[in-house]
Design brief:
Layout lengths: L27 H6 L8 E5 L5 E7 L2 E7 L6 H6 L3 H7 L2 E7 L17 H15 L4 E6 L1 H12 L4 E7 L12 H10 L6 H12 L4 H11 L12 E6 L8 H8 L2 E5 L11 H10 L2
Length: about 280
Amino acid sequence: MGATDLTDPTGPPSAGSARATDAAGSAGSAVSAGSAVSAGEMLFARRLDGVRIAYDVVPGDRPILLVHGFASTGHVTWVGTGWVRALQDAGRGVITVDLRGHGRSDKPHRSIDYLPRQLAADLVVVLDTLGLEQVDVVAYSMGSRVAAAFARLAPERVRRLVLGGAGPDELFETWHPDAVRRFVTDGTVSADPSIMAVLGAAITAGADREALVACVGGVAGSSLDVPAEIPVLYVAGGADSIPAGVADLARARGSEYLELAGRDHVNTLTSREFKRAALRFLA
């Protein structure tokens, strides 16, 4: 909705309203009513400052919004791991997005453009473009923090929330900004192996280097807090150190928690148990 768009309303006149889209017509009815929209047809929602957010739609009932993690895309995270197929087979509609700085979405180069409220507002604009008042959400890794920010920004838009691969401590907050910049700029080896592991893979895959740095700076230290009235299922791999402390977080909140034995940060996403648990929780 326009009221939740956080960009400067004095942006380019061609940007249009928060509901503007580059696709012909509205895809909202296609999601809710199940009319034909190709799963491979990429659409764009546009922020008031002109930033375009790419999204994909798979028709079906009660659409589920899927939010990917850092240095990934909606297709890689959710299609490649079988999520879209599993949700489609269950009769649910699916919306996948490419977060700003990723995939086919626009890639601004300022950290301020990647603050959680900005990333969350992008999701609001996607729902506005589709004409959807409320959705269930499944998110993973950094995407879980974006989804949590979305739930704080517009709690009425979220029915239920599945947060995977994230815990109370945010990984980017432990990274020194200079070390990130040096590694991305000229490959200077960092004392923190996680910087090289995460950013190195992204650079090899052809990610926009300036957008990577900006995203790390904007998201660093972001919260996983979700409004108390929204039911949450937390999921983590038993061999994944990134969501450390999430079991205690779930317990303190009175939320459901699923630990997938032996799963790490990557292969947690491919777990059939994860998919089945999410579908049960969102039923």
